[in-house]
Design goal:
The chain is built from 13 helices and 15 strands. The protein has a 7-stranded parallel β-sheet, with helices on both faces. Strands 12-10-8-13-14-15 form a 6-stranded parallel β-sheet, with helices on both faces. The protein has a two-stranded parallel ribbon with strand order 9-11. Helix 1 crosses helix 13, helix 3 crosses helix 4 and helix 6 crosses helix 8. The radius of gyration is 23 Å and the shape is globular. By secondary structure, the protein is of the alpha/beta class.
Length: 381
């Protein structure tokens, strides 16, 4: 049996857990995997070689926290490290005790600058999952600089322009990681979700990592294109002033996201990583609306999508019928399905798993003895 891998999974949204599950399934059966996460109900099926250790959340209060230390500044090398939180102490203890007990080959951090630095301090080589955003701060630099390698769950064509070549050389780019890249035939998908063959369908998709889109501007959009059938899935924020037309339907959380995307003529969606990969794989006209995230993650990803020519971007949902009509017309006119699908790689999970295996082998192979200060003795000495 090989030395185990550890894997910290951030539990906000579903993308972190989905790519972890895909990698777990692609790793060799003799590579044990211990997953640390604050939730154990967000994972799809895992192989028998993987186990979940539930830990307290690193950012959600439980009620037993000390309240008098928030005046002490957080150092620049940390992002979320409040003082007096027993839950954080317990989570860190769970991981450090496992480090000592299991002697892991690698710790994969998706995502936390603190866990990455904890791994390094504990002398455990770590792989940091790379995300878009303005991440040049001291905390992210420490996590990236101290990593044995970086794993990007997207294609190299979506790299931010300021990332240096030395950083990219240490990165495994895996476009499509976390999704099933096979796409259903459009009419078959429509039959499964109850959309007519000839209807124009506009899909509004909000991921699980935030509060979703507001009802009001979506209603304006539906009224601006009354011949189309508008369907929303995911979380929608209710607006008391929204006047909704009859061509707008809210379906909430569904298990058929891929079918809804495959069935759509136009997709309006935020730029969370899993959402991006699903829309790119389907090759659908896409109006991308970034949501607020820490470090402007979705805004920087939207910039990368626009630069690659695979999405039409607006910084917020259009606020008038005319703005909606212009945005949707631009989305259809600039659609490049081949470019979209070109950013999804064959077997991204297999690529990532093979890279992790090679990295672990390289890290733990015994180097040749090197004695820079030892001089050869003369033969007749």
């Amino acid at each position: 049996m090989k030395r185990p891998f550890g894997y910290f999974v951030h539990h906000q949204g579903r993308g972190h857990a989905e790519r972890c599950a895909r990698i777990a399934a692609a790793l060799p059966a003799d590579r044990p995997l211990t997953i640390f996460c604050a939730r154990d109900d967000i994972f799809s099926s895992l192989p028998v070689s993987a186990r979940i250790e539930t830990i307290p959340s690193l950012f959600e209060a439980r009620g037993d926290e000390a309240l008098g230390m928030d005046h002490i500044p957080t150092p620049e090398t940390l992002h979320c490290a409040p003082l007096g939180w027993p839950g954080i102490r317990r989570a860190m203890a769970s991981m450090t005790q496992w480090f000592d007990r299991a002697d892991p080959a690698l710790m994969i951090c998706d995502v936390s600058a603190e866990i990455a630095q904890l791994s390094r301090i504990c002398s455990v080589p770590h792989v940091k999952v790379l995300q878009h955003g303005d991440r040049g701060d001291a905390g992210h630099r420490a996590a990236y600089d101290g990593a044995a390698g970086l794993l990007a769950p997207f294609h190299a064509g979506l790299a931010q322009p300021e990332w240096p070549m030395a950083m990219r050389a240490r990165t495994c780019f895996a476009g499509g990681l976390g999704i099933d890249a096979s796409v259903a035939e459009k009419q078959a998908a429509r039959r499964r979700i109850g959309i007519g063959a000839e209807e124009e369908m506009v899909l509004v998709l909000a991921g699980g990592g935030g509060n979703g889109f507001s009802q009001g501007p979506i209603a304006v959009g539906a009224r601006s294109r009354p011949a189309a059938r508008w369907v929303t899935i995911g979380r929608i924020e209710r607006d008391w002033h929204a006047t909704e037309p009859t061509n707008l339907e809210h379906r909430g959380w569904v298990d058929t996201v891929a079918d809804h995307i495959a069935a759509a003529d136009i997709v309006v969606a935020s730029t969370g990583n899993t959402t991006c990969q699903q829309i790119l794989a389907a090759g659908r006209p896409w109006l991308a609306i970034p949501e607020w995230r820490y470090f402007d993650e979705q805004h920087r990803k939207a910039e990368a999508l626009a630069a690659a020519g695979v999405a039409t971007v607006r910084l917020h949902l259009p606020s008038s019928a005319g703005a909606w009509q212009q945005a949707l017309a631009e989305t259809l006119a600039d659609h490049r399905p081949l470019a979209q699908r070109g950013l999804i790689e064959d077997d991204a999970a297999g690529k990532a798993a093979a890279w992790l295996e090679r990295l672990a082998e390289e890290l733990w192979s015994e180097p040749a003895p090197h004695h820079p200060h030892r001089r050869s003795e003369p033969e007749d000495a």
